[in-house]
Amino acid sequence: MVEFPRQKDAELYEAVGQFLADHKLSIEPANYAFAYRVLVDPAGPLARSVADLTDGGVRLTAQDIAQLGGPAPTNAAPAGNGDAASSRPSSELIVQADAMIARAEMQVADFSQAVRSIHAETSGFGRDLAASAAAMRQADPVTGTDEVFRLTATMIDRANVAERRMAAAEQEAEALRSALDEARGTARLDPLTELANRRAFDEAYDAVPPGTPIALALCDIDHFKRVNDDFGHAVGDRVLRAVGLTIASESAGAVVARYGGEEFAILFIGVDLDAAVALVDRARSAVAARRFRSRKTDAPIGVITISGGVAAGMSDEPREVLYARADAALYRAKAAGRNRAFSAA
Question: Is the pTM value of this prediction over 0.85?
Fold first, then answer.
């Protein structure tokens, strides 16, 4: 390992602390060790990877750190713009959520089946009792049957009540199933922007029929850290939401998702590269034309811009391949001065 360039321990400690603060990482041994590895070898592969991920003021997420060999995320983060963990949940959390939903759906299905069976049985029971009472009345309408008629009528009433209760329970089960369906949909939305989240975007990509021309675009808000630092995260959240909705409104029905932090992904289906770049550039222009002000102070926030990278291919390609090409184009757009959209080479 390359030695840290002649800095005193106190200076190194301060640099690590500043790194943790910049990326809003908790002060714990695992995060401290990760920051130390980055800072102690500024020219090493880990530091270069961190520099690539944080280009343009982007903060590291817990998922980024885990992928770089740091500590794995231990719990979900808030839905705000300071951390993309809510948009990029860990696979463990996804599996747990899916398992819970699946178990609940099985319980609902079992309950509905049981209710239907009981409903059928009570309906048949009521009909049988009614037929028996009618037969007894015809056979001996005068002697010794008044009590039997009364009991039979009581049992018929109870059967009718049971039928009504079973029908109500079945309606409740159906309402629960609808609520579960809604929960599935909510689990695929980013709560801040109300766009699709990364999970929903990946599922949409995987669902495109094989052999379909597609284009994947990545858009990143330029210098977004400045907005958070100068105006606070509440303003940053509002900017994120406004930018995301602007991109969606200019994307001609494409799948638009908040992919993480201040990064948005767009999936164009049946659209060639030139058309996709034109749409992304139109969204870029629409964002740049907006004028944001702080609601609290009415101070102008300044011009907000985005950079975009677009790659085209076929739906048979793994999304990681197309994503990497789009990300490389985005990086070139950032390096060329930002506020522009580039296509993959």
Answer: no
